[in-house]
Amino acid sequence: MKSNDQWSSRFGFILASAGSAIGLGALWKFPYMAGTNGGGAFFLVFLLFTFAVGAPMLLAEFVVGRHSQQNAVSSYESISGNPKWKWLGYLGVTASFIILSFYSVIGGWVITYLLRSFSGSLTGLSNSRYAELFGEIIGSPSTSLLTQAAFLAITIAIVQFGVQKGIEKASRYMMPALFVLFIVLVARSLSLDGAMEGVAFFLQPDLTKLTAEGVLDALGQSFFALSVGISLMVTYSSYLDKSADLTGSVISVVSLNVFISFLAGLAIFPAVFAFGFEPSGGAGLIFTVLPAVFNQMAFGGLFFTIFMALLLFATLTSAFSLMEIIVSTVTRGKGNRKKVAWIAGFFVFLLGIPSALSFGTLADVSIFGRTIFDAMDFLASNVLMPVGALFISIFVSRKMKRDILSSEVMMSSKIGRVIFPIWYILIRYIVPAAIVIVLITSLLAY
């Protein structure tokens, strides 16, 4: 394996993995999911799924990737010796294509708002005007497609240089910047009069507000937030040194993800409640409610620009991993990475066009009562990711020998010796059962 196809250090791997995990999952999706599902109740169930299901799944993907040292498709086939298992890898690649197609649309919105915020054109508008403006932006075919293409171009420009010189190098700058900007934003939000009402909404669970759909959303969010279920982390860990501590890496990535989700709640809900807005703003929460909130703060334009820059960093680090699984599967370490990255990006753009137009030209088109954008999101987050996670848990616990699993989990890790028996029970029994129960419940609910 070429040096540029490996992480230069475990720290670089953790930053890139955390960046993949954090992304829009923590900054865009988590706040509006929590806002529409009871705040603290959703956060509590999300934490439960993250530690009981998401974290074991993350370690399982790390084990598969590091043990095989191959891309997502080849990993399952080489370990099992059965070519049928390669379809589990293809499921991940397909899901990544779908996610990146609508993810890049949101990335385009972020770019639009960052540019408008930087220019000052978002300052001084009425509250109703912010909602109207968002509708105009997402309803404009030219704006949506142009910014979607710009976001994908930035993603490809980084991924084409490989793991070490591209993804890792970018993550080393973006992730520390993300944390610094977030701390500044949280401090400002908590300093507002009436902020504690938002803190109570976020941290005091009211389980009566949580529905079966909300529980499914929490499970989907735990997968989406940790980038598990579609073999992204199989790909990332395949570039990891054979002696690296996988257990410690999982603890670091999960901790960073939960911390960022926690900060996201503290940055958004106190400000929303302080100015009398509703937290259940849906997917447009950060584009319709937050601009209005920041508009009423001292130096609000500056802080909203900071938030948009933070959101763009996080969005890109997730997009890197989604693009990488596609590129690595096609090149298999031998093809022309740059050429493949640009061609793959072009096809992702084409797939994303219906999502980009689903709030404008194709607004009247629905799939099972959902816009094309929402249908793609639901298919990926609530179907493909849980199904992928189910089969990955079955593969790891049923197709890999226990002594191989224990060796991978305990490698260079003292805590791995303590965690392995617990993890093995979770991944073999609890995780599959939890996924099946929630999937059945969701089908009955819908």
UniProtKB/TrEMBL annotation:
Recorded superkingdom: Bacteria
Primary site of residence: membrane
Pfam families: SNF
Residues spanning the membrane: 12-30, 42-64, 85-111, 145-163, 175-203, 223-241, 253-277, 297-320, 340-359, 379-397, 418-445
Topology within the bilayer: Multi-pass membrane protein
Sample GO molecular function, one term: symporter activity
InterPro entries recorded: Na/ntran_symport, SNS_sf, YocR/YhdH-like
GO CC terms, sorted: membrane
Localization annotation: Membrane
Keywords from the UniProt entry: Membrane, Symport, Transmembrane, Transmembrane helix, Transport
Family: Belongs to the sodium:neurotransmitter symporter (SNF) (TC 2.A.22) family.
Identification of the protein by name: Transporter
Organism: Guptibacillus hwajinpoensis
Source species taxonomy: Bacteria, Bacillati, Bacillota, Bacilli, Bacillales
